[in-house]
């Protein structure tokens, strides 16, 4: 793929303002002077300014034009000085627009809105999460942080992309972490399990240092790093390997449930977190499944504080502080 050549810096707004002010001053000065030089051709100062703007911008309507030698020499001076200034101004505006768009596509443009979701790490899970959030009517803006991508992977620009390492303060501030509502950290594909979890913990520490109030959801691959993630500030921990191991186990043991397990995250499948009511309290998993089936729900797992456990052991007894994860079509 051909990489676009991108100017690392933005066109400074002060330059655009200065050029615009200079253009206005030149139009005002030349327009006023031509009115006094040829008062019959340019009856008011406004007509003089109009002529100066039309001439300097090379539009040239021809409705006003100097007829005296002095006026024409004056017009020549305006053409020589004004056209260069106006051309520079228009070129600067175009350059600013192109640079801004290029910086947006390549992840160099800061995010300035608030109440957004930050996702750290681009992979298939991130992509599917964004798709399902949009399909579910999630209205908050989404910011993706990733250091492996060179350009925004979303063709329809459904999220803001920032290129960089999610554990660095500079990148988190560029994503406006202090105004974010939620952060989701996914396990990186380019790292081994230990490195991935270490990176997740580093991200949590950096995030907690910049915004202790933001809700953090972290994907952890190794059991050893679970407690570290909790201490680093994770509000919810997703044990990806434990989930997959449980699904594989249930698929092997309970063949009749395999189609349900495989299709559990079908696009038409709606997942809900149900509070533990009296009918679920102190019931084991098999009893909970039977109650949910009567209500046309499919049991998925249990949320215990910050931990999410899919397909727990059948002898697990549901407690008051648990949440039941279930879904239905």
UniProtKB/TrEMBL annotation:
Keywords: Membrane, Transmembrane, Transmembrane helix. The chain crosses the membrane at residues 16-37, 49-69, 76-98. This is Ion transporter. It is found in: Cell membrane. GO terms for cellular component: plasma membrane. GO terms for biological process: potassium ion transport. PANTHER family: POTASSIUM CHANNEL PROTEIN 2-RELATED-RELATED, POTASSIUM CHANNEL PROTEIN YUGO-RELATED. It holds the Pfam family TrkA_N.
